[in-house]
Amino acid sequence: TLKDLFDAELPGIIEGYKGRLRLGMQSFRSPHITPTLLKKFKNDYPNVEIILHEGNYCFLEDLLLDNQIDLFFCNCPRYNQNLQYISLHREPVLLVTPPGHPNISHSQHVTGSKYPWIDLRHFQSEQFILQYEGQSLRASVDQILRDTGIKPTKLLCVRSIGTSLRMTAEGMGISFCNESYTSYFNFNKKPEFFHVGNHIHTTEFVAAYNKGRNLPGYATYLIKILSDIL
């Protein structure tokens, strides 16, 4: 667990290592996480050099397996047996629809959730605006589509999640996002958000590093900071 790892490395943290950390961060989350994370870290470890790589899950996983980075933070669509994972946060994956879409009248209240549920089959013939394969959100959405038996007949792929959300807000189709992404944007026309599927689909945000490697104390401290931020 994160606590066990943090406790094991505490002596190293107290000593205040100097060093270098090659860090990977998911591109979409990075602007919302990295400045706060690194500011606090550098306040405590000014002599640790950070080398930052940004990209999607597949890109960062390849860098880690090739030993080009030491650690990365990302939504995790699947586990690799050669890597070690620390779970930091889990959140729902939501359907996003244009504001006032006529099909939202079919939605149902979900006890204990701020988001209603809706049957995705009501949107079978809609324009789907999804991310490209290889992006972690796309992997989560593909799982939802498999579970619900939906095969989009109209599909537009865009790399930017911000683009897909704003296109949906403008009434150009439906899309998906993680719950935390709903707070990243100010919309002129705010889209609607729903749970879909037979259960609440979630995605896991993790710290990943190579199995068998002992992380230095300052790397463990960075993970702890991010866990607190989330």
What do these coordinates show?
This protein is α/β, with parallel strands linked by helices and 230 residues long. It has 2 domains: 2-88 and 204-229, Periplasmic binding protein-like II (D-Maltodextrin-Binding Protein, domain 2); 90-203, Periplasmic binding protein-like II (D-Maltodextrin-Binding Protein, domain 2), CATH 3.40.190. Helix content is 32%, strand content 27%. It contains 6 helices and 9 strands; from the N terminus they run H-E-H-E-H-E-E-E-H-E-H-E-E-E-H. The strands form 2 sheets. Strands 1, 2, 3, 4, 7, 8 and 9 form a 7-stranded mixed β-sheet that branches. A two-stranded parallel sheet has the order 5-6. Helix 1 (2-15) packs across helix 6 and helix 2 (30-44) crosses helix 6. It is elongated. The two termini are 16 Å apart. The mean pLDDT is 91.
Put the structure in a nutshell.
With 230 residues, the protein is an alpha/beta fold. Helix content is 32%, strand content 27%.
SS class: alpha/beta
How many H/I helical runs? 6
| Unreliable sequence segments | none
Q: What is the ordering of alpha helices and beta strands?
A: HEHEHEEEHEHEEEH
Indicate the mean pLDDT. Answer: 91
Bulk shape = elongated
Main sheet characteristics: 7 strands, mixed
What's the structural domain tally?
2
What is the percent of helical residues? 25-40%
Q: How far apart are the termini? A: 16 Å
* Named CATH architecture of the largest domain: 3-Layer(aba) Sandwich
At the fold tier of CATH, the topology name of the largest domain is: D-Maltodextrin-Binding Protein, domain 2
The H-level CATH homologous superfamily of the largest domain, spelled out, is Periplasmic binding protein-like II
Spatial extent as radius of gyration:
19 Å
CATH class of the largest domain: Alpha Beta
- Strand-residue fraction? 25-35%
Structure summary, number of beta strands: 9
